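Deliverable D2.4 — example input (structure tokens):
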């Protein structure tokens, strides 16, 4: 078997990132979009490509390094991008451990030289120099990789290593970091091939527990699709556009999206699908055409997508429901207008109420996202947010703490102000033992973290919520939720509050 040109690796970090929730099975195992997208892109250009999802295979960091050495590719790309702002930084810990094992073990098994290593993703794109100095890696790709990886592979095939004048490629030689300009984002998403889903164990992926509340026993198989990349908004706590280098949104045509849905349904029997767009319900014509094309096919899909409360309309929600988008996730973030204004988030709480009423009237379920510890938050405003969550009584509520993710404006401000940040990348994970939120002027990190965990219990143990779940989904789902609330997360930094 000939040596592959490139092996894409998704690091296995479930236990460290999600703590006890990974033991209980609450979390999803999501197919790695960026590894698969880049693999498909390179494959059609004639490069020999493989993908290793260490997470879904349950490989340890040492075992992942062993797999890489056994495959012995010319280039190994560890993709540390997830499909939301909080999915990259905390995966740096696992990525770093894999690289450390590789370097300690020396050369590959099938060649005089081991593979060249590269980190790709949101986090390394924003902190390329720091990443090169801290990790045992040869290169960092700043940006998406479409214009960086082909010339890099051509150079490696020709035996060239070291500093190469390739857009987006960073390297370090003799302690000196050398860089090249970041390439522009790929303009025509329809020109990209379908992600290389066939290189992954697609039957092994698992949806979130709440996504399948209608039948909690059928969370597999599970797929993801993207219909757009990027976001045009500028919330100070968000880092999503760090991979792209600027704000903005690019769309795939509905025809290409549905072509991919056809593939996922016909090849893998997938019903549960996440639309990973940072902002799906934004361009009305795009949403309507996509839904119409899905409706024409008569699929029985169970999908979910993100939306803003000021972009949804009754006819859009009705068409989404008909197409199989049963869940819509709203970033409510806070229930206090002052706090929302402080982070450049739309603060029209009346519009939020109208969107909630619309969503329920059209028969969709709501995923309500809240963040505690936003700049300006105090005890009273955090309680406002919890009260809002309890009032909405959404079918699922995500309760987060404010993390100053690299690439967000609040990260830059925290660094400039000397604010205490997590000592390890694992500390940026919402559910890890090391989780350390950003403090506010009024609240410590430990107080915010403790309030978040208290809010989770208050929400999911609320009799009004459990009665609604029983009415909508039945006793088995209620039992699942009750089992979920029987354990507590291990935390190193919680602080009791009155």
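Example output (designed residues):
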């Amino acid at each position: 078997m000939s040596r592959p040109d490139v092996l894409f690796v998704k690091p296995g970090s479930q236990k460290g990132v999600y703590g006890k929730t990974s033991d209980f099975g609450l979390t999803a195992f999501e197919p790695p979009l960026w590894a698969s997208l880049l693999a498909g892109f390179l494959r059609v250009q004639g490069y020999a490509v493989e993908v290793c999802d260490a997470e879904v295979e349950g490989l340890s960091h040492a075992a992942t390094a062993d797999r890489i050495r056994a495959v012995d590719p010319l280039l190994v790309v560890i993709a540390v991008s997830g499909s939301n702002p909080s999915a990259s930084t905390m995966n740096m810990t696992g990525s770093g451990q894999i690289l450390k094992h590789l370097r300690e073990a020396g050369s590959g098994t099938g060649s005089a030289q081991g593979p060249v290593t590269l980190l790709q993703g949101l986090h390394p794109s924003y902190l390329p120099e720091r990443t090169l100095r801290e990790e045992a890696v040869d290169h960092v790709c700043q940006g998406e990789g479409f214009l960086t990886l082909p010339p890099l592979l051509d150079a490696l095939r020709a035996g060239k290593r070291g500093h190469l004048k390739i857009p987006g490629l960073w390297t370090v030689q003799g302690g000196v970091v050398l860089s090249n300009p970041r390439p522009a984002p790929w303009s025509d998403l329809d020109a990209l091939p379908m992600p290389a889903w066939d290189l992954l164990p697609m039957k092994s992926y698992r949806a979130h527990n709440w996504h399948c509340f209608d039948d909690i026993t059928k969370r597999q198989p599970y797929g993801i699709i993207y219909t757009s990349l990027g976001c045009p908004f500028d919330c100070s706590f968000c880092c999503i556009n760090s991979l792209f280098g600027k704000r903005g949104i690019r769309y795939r045509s509905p025809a290409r999206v549905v072509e991919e849905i056809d593939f996922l349904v016909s090849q893998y029997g997938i019903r549960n699908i996440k639309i990973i767009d940072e902002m799906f319900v934004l361009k009305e014509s795009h949403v309507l055409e996509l839904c119409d094309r899905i409706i024409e096919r008569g699929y029985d899909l169970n999908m979910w997508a993100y939306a803003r409360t000021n972009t949804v309309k009754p006819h859009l929600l009705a068409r989404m429901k008909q197409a199989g988008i049963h869940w819509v996730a709203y970033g409510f973030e806070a229930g206090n207008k002052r706090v929302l204004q402080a982070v450049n988030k739309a603060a029209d709480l009346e519009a939020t109420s109208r969107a909630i009423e619309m969503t329920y009237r059209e028969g969709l379920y709501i995923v309500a996202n809240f963040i505690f510890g936003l700049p300006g938050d105090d005890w009273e405003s955090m309680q406002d947010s919890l009260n809002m969550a309890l009032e909405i009584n959404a079918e699922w509520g995500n309760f987060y703490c404010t993390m100053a993710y690299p690439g967000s404006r609040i990260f830059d401000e925290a660094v400039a102000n000397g604010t205490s940040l997590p000592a390890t990348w694992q500390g940026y994970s919402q559910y890890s033992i090391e989780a350390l939120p950003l403090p506010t002027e009024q609240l410590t990190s430990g107080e915010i973290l403790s309030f978040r965990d208290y809010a989770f219990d208050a929400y999911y143990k609320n009799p009004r919520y459990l009665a609604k779940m029983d009415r909508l989904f039945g006793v088995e789902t209620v039992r699942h939720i009750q089992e979920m609330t029987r354990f507590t997360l291990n935390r190193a930094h919680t602080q009791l509050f009155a």
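The longest strand covers residues 325-333.
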